[in-house]
Design a protein that fits this description.
nine-stranded antiparallel beta sheet, 8 helices, 25% strand, alpha+beta, single chain, 315 residues, T-fold
């Protein structure tokens, strides 16, 4: 059996927006020995708000070298991003930043510059992409992933696959679905945005009401940005059951400023939930048509909508 790379609804690195961006503690690498892969274990990397779980398969010496490369590349990521934080919190369109991860964030979010978005919408995915690239450089690895709070960059050599578990509600965590990622498919990133309601334990700021939005794309940064956009699109504007509050009233350091985000959500009829899901699905279909994503799964109140290629099925 293949180990599942689980994606769980998570924030786009919330510590960057709550005054924790400056690293007060040194980076923390940690080897996790459990697992049955060829190298028998995972690598945990933590620094400030960045918390990564890495796994690679291959010859044990190659895996050890890959983990060492990731641990070497990791310490500079947070300070480099913090150095450009004001620019990364600025709404698009804007001038490109300078750092390589910052530029990836900016590029991933630029297709959505016709609405409010900042490069921070792609930070978790971009960090995962960067660490995966560092792990793989010059190494012979059959499969690998870097999981950054539910935003996952993964590598698959020809003929390889990974099973990915889908958890749609952190308030009642359970494996809600399972799908297989194949090397022949173009996707190399997966990201989940949710839960929308900050007043009910949600960790993401959202303009919408999704319980979760999971996106497959060519990179984790692209998936991360699109998951934010799709979560915002799942909305019922003006509905009396939706309680909104200014983002900066919840977190004074939020890059969303005084814009209203979802705080709580009251009762919805099945038809109303379906209407919000349909708004998200239509947006997902449009993003797929533009080549910005490869697929998406959206959930709300136990109901599900999907925009997926015919080759991908959820069990």
């Amino acid at each position: 059996m293949r180990e599942a790379a689980r994606t769980t609804p998570g924030p786009s690195q919330p510590g960057f927006n709550n005054g924790q961006a400056s690293a007060g503690h040194p980076p923390h690498p940690d080897s996790l020995p459990e697992g049955k892969g060829e190298a028998g274990g995972r690598l945990h990397l933590q620094h400030g708000p960045i918390d990564l779980l890495c796994r690679a398969w291959g010859d044990p010496a190659e895996v050890r070298a890959a983990y060492a490369q990731a641990a070497t590349a990791f310490p500079v990521i947070l300070p480099t991003l913090c150095a450009e934080l004001p620019a990364l919190r600025a709404p698009l369109p804007s001038l490109p930043p300078h750092g390589p991860i910052a530029r990836v964030m900016h590029t991933a979010c630029t297709p959505y510059a016709d609405r409010f978005i900042t490069p921070m919408a792609a930070v978790a995915g971009a960090v995962a992409d960067a660490l995966l690239a560092a792990m793989l450089a010059g190494r012979r690895i059959s499969r690998a992933f870097v999981n950054n709070g539910g935003d996952i960059a993964f590598h698959l050599a020809p003929g390889q696959s990974l099973r990915c578990g889908l958890v749609t509600d952190l308030a009642a965590p359970a494996l809600d679905g399972l799908f297989t990622l194949h090397a022949a498919a173009p996707s190399r990133g997966i990201a989940t945005s949710g839960r929308a309601c900050k007043g009910r334990g949600g960790r993401s700021f959202s303009f919408g009401i999704a319980d979760s939005v999971t996106v497959l794309a060519r990179t984790a940064a692209q998936a991360d940005a699109a998951a934010t956009v799709l979560g915002n699109a799942m909305d019922l504007p003006g509905h009396p059951a939706i309680m909104r509050r200014p983002a900066d009233g919840i977190d004074p350091n939020s890059d969303l400023g005084p814009r209203l985000v979802t705080w709580d959500l009251g009762p919805l009829t099945p038809a109303e939930a379906d209407a919000a899901l349909d708004a998200g699905r239509r947006t997902a279909d449009a993003l797929r048509a533009r080549g910005l994503i490869d697929g998406a799964v959206l959930t709300l109140r136990g109901r599900v909508a999907a925009s997926l290629p015919a080759t991908l099925e959820i069990a």
